[in-house]
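Sharing a chain and its predicted structure for anyone who wants a worked example. Both blocks are below, sequence first, C-alpha cells second.
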Amino acid sequence: ALDCAPELTVGPSTVPEVALVLTFAGFPLQAWDAIQTFMTRAQRSGWLSAIVTSSTCASLTAMHLGWVREAVANARGPIAPGNEPLFGPIGLAFLVEALIERGETETAAEELAARGCDAELAPIWPTTPLLLARGRLSAAIGDHPRALEDLRAVGERACAFGLVNVAMTPWRSSASVSLAAIGDRREAIALASEELELARRWGAARAIGIALRALGLEIGRASCR
C-alpha cells in the first residue's frame, strides 16, 4: 500500500490506516515517516479529510514513540471546530491519553467536558477509543469504579465489533489495575493473563510489555498479602 501511496488520491485514510498497522506491529518510526509524507502531500493540495486523518493517526504513533508533545499537537487538529464530525472523538481520545502522560489530568477532564464527552457516548467505533481514554483518566484520578464502568464498556464493544487485537484496544490491562485498586485481585489477574495471551498471539513487543506489566503488578500485590 505504501509503495502505491503517491497514487492514492481517493481514500483519505488509506495511508494513515496502513501506518497504524505498522505502529501496532512495532514499527512506529516507519509509520511516522509514512504519515508525514502523506500529510505533506495532503496539505499542498488542501485535502482536508486527509489532513485530519493523518493528524489523528500521527498523534497515536507519536505516543508509541514517546513523543508526548507531538502527540498533543497532532491530536488538537482533528478536534478543531469544523473537524469534529470526521475524526473528532478519536483525536480527543489521543489528546486525553497524551495529557494523562503529562500528568495534566485536570486539563484532560476539561477537554472532555468542553465537548460534552463526559456523559454517555454513542455506541459506535469512533467513540470507543475515547471511552478507553476516559476510563484511563478516571483511574488516573483515583475514580476506579467509574474507570471500570467505561473499560468494561470498551470490552463489550470490542466483542461486538469482533476486535481481538489488544495492541489496538488494551482495555483488560487498564481494568486490571482498577480491579486491584478496589480489592478484586482474582479478576485483575485473570484479565491481565488473558491480555497477555492475546498479545503474544499478535506478537508485538509493546502489547506484550503492557500486559506483562499489568500481570506483574497484580501477582506482586497478591504475593505481598
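Comments welcome. The radius of gyration is 18 Å.
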